[in-house]
Amino acid sequence: MITSVFRRRLWAPVGVLTSLAYLVHQRRVALAEMQGAHGQHPVDRSLLELKMVQVVFRHGARSPLKPLPQEEQQVEWNLRLLEVPPQTQFDYTVTDLTGGPKPYSPLDSQYRKTVLKGGMFAGQLTKVGMWQMFALGQRLKKNYVEDVPFLSPTFNPQEVFVRSTNIYRNLESTRCLLAGLFPHQKEGPIVIHTDEASSEVLYPNFQNCCSLRERIRGRRRAASLQPGISEDLKKVKEGLGIASSDEVDFIVLLDNMAAEQAHGLLSFPTLERFTQLIERRAVDTVLYVQSDDRESLQMVVGPFLHLLESNLLRAVDPATPAGKTRKLYLYAVHDTTLMPLLMALGIFDHKWPPFAVDVTLELYQHQESKEWFVQLYYHGEEQVPRGCPDRLCPLDKFLNTMSVYTLNPDKYHTLCSQAQVTELRNAQ
């Protein structure tokens, strides 16, 4: 059996769920009194008070993770692209989730083994990406410091919780976002929390989830052989002069294309001709590899959804002690996190999440009815989550949408262990 690596401190107590059920019932009763004969009464937004914001964002532009095979065609990833703009400087320190030393990052060690033409490592955040993240921080500052005085103008650890995957480009992206959000930093470094790779929930954890690992085994290579994808891949390879024997799929092509376009670079003159096709087939490849059925999405993003849900539950529970919740939660994740998250919320547009994109959840309380609402944004644009009647979604309906895919640690452990249990039975 897989040893459970999740610590209980990461998850909301089960009793909070019961508490929320009662709260939601009470809010529904209050809201029913406001409803007319023709349905729900329009909500007076002037009576809504912002209570909490959760921002889930992808890192900024970076170098590709794997170069295309023809060395003579590869672009030069010059080390000057790593220069840090002074405006993005922000002092931070990294700890594990309990405040202990920063964990070892096996993924960063792996990226450093790939040196690109020009001297950069694979997957390094560039100054273009730094500016992108700084701009996102400035947008958050305008929304939650200037337009609405929700956050203090300087970083306050009692208001803001920051968590990132333990990958350097994400830590540095978070630094740049914080520099844009809090240009007047208080003295001393702020803390960015991260977790061991073995128990990370901010990306699909194939290492920790045996069932997920078994489901995707061999499927990425098989995806390139699927009807439609296979023919299009052959056409693109021929157009770019890539040998059919080279192990290049649409995900590798998109990764290089997106990185080059963000930096105004071009390896193949004909690459732009295939831009839309490459993106569409890269998405198709991911959907084939990871699948969008309920169990697959649960294993891919369920534990992270549980974190987001737990933050909502604590915020609406009057029994939550002071200091146990924050006004703002920042989560630095990856495209492989955002795609299943968007699918689970019912707002996936079948486009690859770009660099520095964000999903933002705002929690409001109506000052008269005491009803709770959620407002969802993707890339700064208002969204209507699955199961919600409008962009301003009653909290209970939003939680119903999340609950289809949310996994607490026990359920996650059970689901992820099924493949290993089957293997042990077959071996007996």
Give a short summary of the structure.
It contains 13 helices and nine strands.
Write the layout of secondary structure elements.
Blueprint: H1 14-32, E1 48-58, E2 92-95, H2 106-111, H3 127-146, E3 160-164, H4 168-181, E4 190-193, H5 210-216, H6 219-223, H7 229-240, H8 250-262, H9 275-290, H10 294-316, E5 328-333, H11 335-345, E6 358-366, E7 372-378, E8 381-383, E9 392-394, H12 395-403, H13 409-427
Parallel strand pairs: 1-5, 2-4, 3-5
Antiparallel strand pairs: 1-6, 6-7, 7-8, 7-9
Characterization of this structure:
Helices cover 41% and strands 12% of the residues. It has 13 helices and 9 strands. The protein has helices spanning 14-32, 106-111, 127-146, 168-181, 210-216, 219-223, 229-240, 250-262, 275-290, 294-316, 335-345, 395-403, 409-427, and strands spanning 48-58, 92-95, 160-164, 190-193, 328-333, 358-366, 372-378, 381-383, 392-394.
